[in-house]
Specification:
- The chain has twelve helices and five strands.
- The chain is 58% helix and 10% strand.
- The radius of gyration is 33 Å and the shape is elongated.
- It has a five-stranded antiparallel β-sheet.
- It has two domains: 3-109, 434 Repressor (Amino-terminal Domain); 151-274, no CATH class.
- With 289 residues, the protein is an alpha+beta fold.
Length: 289
């Protein structure tokens, strides 16, 4: 859209007494969309041009033709309030059909869906949904609800952790039950109570596997706890405390090797996201917690 038409839209809006917010509400769009039109950064689609002509009570030619004097257009609209955009001049056979057509037009004008760089906007008369960089704004039955990116991030983060927590809890319960059963059923066994407890250390190790998969990071694996469990088990069972302590020296080696793998995984999943045509990110910035 050229700057002359953009300025014309600004002048028409102001002469008709609308703010950008009010006009956006009537069109079922965001204020940013109207602002982009008036800065000549974007152009209204055909449906929105028709709706603008209806609101301003002018023809499409008067709306878009900068050669037509704007004051004359406004004066004409005020003198002929029933003469709207010429795109609506549809002949009717009788009053009943005319009323029916008008009703259909009203329904169509009330229900609008707009998807663009500024977000997704759905307006169905009294109810509407607007999704943009600020979050999700919902109007339903006169009640307004607004969810920011942080609100959505916390909700989805909590939901995606539920499966991990349940699986870890089940595994931990089975390990503890197994340890107690072995201890009570074989109390005279040499290692019934003294060694079996080391299996409890495997519970956080099991849980860290899910975190590795979710975060796409090898370094999230609880390797130090696994080393401790192996060291205690072998040390108590076979008395090999020395030289088995050298296992702890492998911990920095593990993290040194994990770092480049983490970078490769991050690059891989980032490139997969770039291949998508439309991405709505509700997770926000990834947290290390």
């Amino acid at each position: 859209m050229n700057i002359e038409i953009a300025n014309r839209l600004v002048q028409l809006r102001k002469k008709c007494g609308y703010s950008q917010e009010e006009l956006a509400g009537k069109l079922g769009l965001s204020r940013q969309s109207v602002s982009k039109w008036e800065r000549a950064e974007a152009s209204p689609d055909t449906d929105n041009l028709i709706e603008l002509a209806r609101l301003y009570n002018v023809s499409l030619d008067d709306l878009l033709n900068p050669d037509v004097n704007l004051d004359d257009v406004i004066n004409k609209a005020e003198k002929n309030p029933n003469e709207g955009s010429d795109v609506n001049d549809v002949p009717h056979e009788n009053e009943e059909n005319a009323g029916e057509t008008t009703s259909n037009d009203e329904k169509e004008s009330k229900s609008k869906v707009n998807i663009g760089s500024d977000g997704i906007h759905i307006d169905d008369g009294d109810d509407s949904v607007h999704i943009d960089g600020k979050g999700i704004h919902i109007v339903e039955n006169g009640e307004e609800k607004h969810f920011t990116g942080e609100d959505i991030k916390r909700k989805f983060k909590r939901e995606e952790h539920i499966g991990e927590e349940i699986a870890t809890a089940v595994f931990g319960t089975l390990v503890i039950i197994g340890y107690l059963l072995f201890g009570f059923l074989y109390p005279d066994h040499e290692f019934a109570w003294s060694v079996g407890w080391t299996a409890i250390l495997l519970i956080p190790v099991f849980g860290s596997i899910f975190k590795c998969a979710r975060k796409h990071r090898v370094s999230r694996f609880a390797y130090p706890i696994l080393v401790t469990a192996v060291y205690c088990f072998v040390g108590i069972t076979f008395g090999l405390w020395h030289p088995l302590w050298v296992l702890f020296l492998t911990i920095p080696v593990f993290y040194g090797l994990a770092a480049p793998f983490d970078k490769l995984l991050k690059r891989k999943y980032s490139s997969n996201d770039d291949d998508d045509n439309v991405v709505i990110d509700v997770k926000g910035v990834e947290s290390d917690d």
